[in-house]
Amino acid sequence: DVKVTQSSRYLVKRTGEKVFLECVQDMDHENMFWYRQDPGLGLRLIYFSYDVKMKEKGDIPEGYSVSREKKERFSLILESASTNQTSMYLCASTPGQYYEQYFGPGTRLTVT
Amino acid sequence: AQKVTQAQTEISVVEKEDVTLDCVYETRDTTYYLFWYKQPPSGELVFLIRRNSFDEQNEISGRYSWNFQKSTSSFNFTITASQVVDSAVYFCALSDSMNSGYSTLTFGKGTMLLVSP
Fold first, then answer.
1. Which residues from B are below 8 Å from A104, CB to CB?
2. How many CA atoms lie within 13 A of B51 on its CB side?
3. Residues A11 and A105 sit within 8 Å (Cβ to Cβ)
4. CB–CB contact A105 B43 (8 Å)
5. Beta strand pairing status for B74-79 and B19-21?
6. How many helices and strands (H and E) does chain A possess?
7. Which candidate in A7, A8, B36, B114 could, as Cys together with A22 as Cys, close a disulfide (CB 3.0–4.6 Å)?
8. Is the separation of the CB atoms in A58 and A48 below 8 Å?
9. Pairing relation of β-strands A107-111 and B88-99?
């Protein structure tokens, strides 16, 4: 079974802090994704990566950056956290184009 | 631009009722895929089905069935004889290559299904 893990289920940070959200998949998938999920807005794509060291902006990249130094790991970085980044963050991976994405359990981030 | 609309925000049914979740999509691609995911209260999204744009056959898996109609750009999901464990948020999603040439998922806003005993 595909396993996507995220470093924390719950995280509380202060405004202005640098925040790292880590995601690891164990199935050698090429593509990895970061989404945020907010009530009434569904899932929105922040960034994705189709190869090591490669990244592409999604629909809402502002205020975020990403890093993919190894194939299995995709990190989401909030350089200076703000209260409007309080959300559920979901990581996903997929072996290639048009395949289903496998999701991690999510990290609920609260910025105070 | 690609778009997925799930017009039903919340549906409440009583156990054993049949329920249909609607999904309407927009895309200019001729090759695309449609998906349904389930998000139970635990929060983790669970993949249910993938269907490509060239296969309009309906699909049935146990109590679940899907109706894909290109003519109306719809991919509806029916649960027969609903159970309390079906209570979840259900997302419809579209994958095409409109985003930088890479296939990404565009999600609908989800339909919350509440099944009461």
1. 44
2. 27
3. no
4. yes
5. antiparallel
6. 0, 11
7. A7
8. yes
9. unpaired
What is chain B's pLDDT, residue by residue, as a tens digit (117 residues)? Answer: 789 999 999 999 999 999 999 999 999 888 899 999 999 998 889 999 999 898 888 888 999 999 999 999 999 999 999 999 999 999 999 997 655 567 788 999 999 999 999
Distance CA A45, CA A76 (A): 12
In contact, A90 and A44? CB cutoff 8 Å: no
Q: Which of A44, A98, A104 sits opposite B103 (nearest CB)?
A: A98
CB-CB neighbours of A77 under 10 Å: 14
Q: Please enumerate residues of A whose Cβ is less than 8 A from a Cβ of B.
A: 31, 33, 40-45, 48, 50, 56, 58, 88, 90, 92, 97-106
Q: Which structure tokens are listed for B65? A: 């069935």
